[in-house]
Specification:
By secondary structure, the chain is α/β, with parallel strands linked by helices. The protein has nine helices and seven strands. Strands 3-2-1-4-5-7-6 form a seven-stranded mixed beta sheet, with helices on both faces. Strand 4, helix 8 and strand 5 form a beta-alpha-beta unit. Helix 2 runs parallel beside helix 4 (66-77). The protein is globular, with a radius of gyration of 18 Å.
């Protein structure tokens, strides 16, 4: 039963294991590359103009959704306008339980912080009907639409996460963090990313896809080289737009912009 599967996911997430293949893929943990990606987004000069136009943000393997939370916070804190453009936040994760217990609650917490609904120095947020009503009204007022999706990588998930059915044209930002750690799932993720990007391009507007990752995942087998091979085999490439610098930085990390191969 679905309820039993969700309970298995929760138990796995509360254990000491980072992941359990085909049961739990690590969504309850905040991975460091997601923070790298959020910091990178903050540094982009075009961020405000992107968010103030019709746009869709798709986070694949969202988990705790740190990058999406950042962008959502910016949307909430921007000055209100009479007829705001449509902005869609699509958060996709392997596990429904992660979406229910981490992703959406984090977006709700972000809303409460941005709108000063959390008492100063308080560590708790009580989820009340009043808060939920305010959340829904705040989204509607700003023309923000949140869409959670659970499922495996592949063409089906890519179709679901694509905003191609959205009648309002606009730009698309596709985000992913720590999603290429496993050679067994890397090709499926690559196809998902490719199909989502392709459908968004066909819709019109600009499309940017950013993948934050460790250079190599020791003991697991994934990493940048393996991802580059998977991309090249399908006519795509990853351009490194950020990487860790200096001695003592630990395992190297980077952010790749995925685009069609030019050569």
């Amino acid at each position: 039963m679905a309820e039993d599967n969700n309970l298995d996911e929760v138990r796995a997430g509360l254990s000491t294991d980072d992941i359990r293949p085909n049961i739990y893929e690590g969504g309850f943990k905040t991975w460091e590359c997601s923070i790298d990606l959020a910091n990178h987004l903050i540094s982009q000069a075009e961020l405000s103009s992107f968010l103030n136009s019709p746009c869709t943000i798709v986070e694949l393997g969202a988990g705790t959704a740190i990058p999406t939370m950042l962008l959502f916070y910016h949307l909430l804190c921007s000055a209100p306008v009479p007829d705001p453009p449509r902005r869609a936040l699509v958060v996709a994760d392997y596990n429904p339980a992660v979406l229910h217990l981490a992703t959406i609650p984090n977006l709700l917490l972000t809303y409460a912080l941005a709108t000063n609904l959390i008492p100063p120095k308080s560590g708790d947020l009580e989820i009340t009907p009043t808060l939920l009503s305010s959340f829904k009204a705040g989204l509607a007022e700003r023309n923000i639409h949140v869409r959670p999706i659970a499922g495996r990588w592949g063409a089906l998930l890519a179709s679901l996460t694509s905003p191609a059915s959205d009648p309002v044209p606009g730009d698309t930002l596709i985000l992913a963090s720590e999603t290429i750690y496993s050679p067994e799932s890397m090709l499926a993720f690559t196809i998902c990313l490719e199909e989502t990007t392709r459908e968004c391009e066909e819709r019109g507007g600009r499309v940017k896809a950013l993948v934050a990752t460790k250079i190599v995942y020791f003991g697991v087998g994934g990493g940048v080289d393996e991802f580059a091979t998977a991309l090249k085999g399908r006519g795509w490439e990853g351009e490194m737009v950020w990487e860790t610098q200096g001695i003592g930085a630990g395992v190297g990390r980077c952010i790749l912009e995925v685009k069609r191969a030019t050569g």
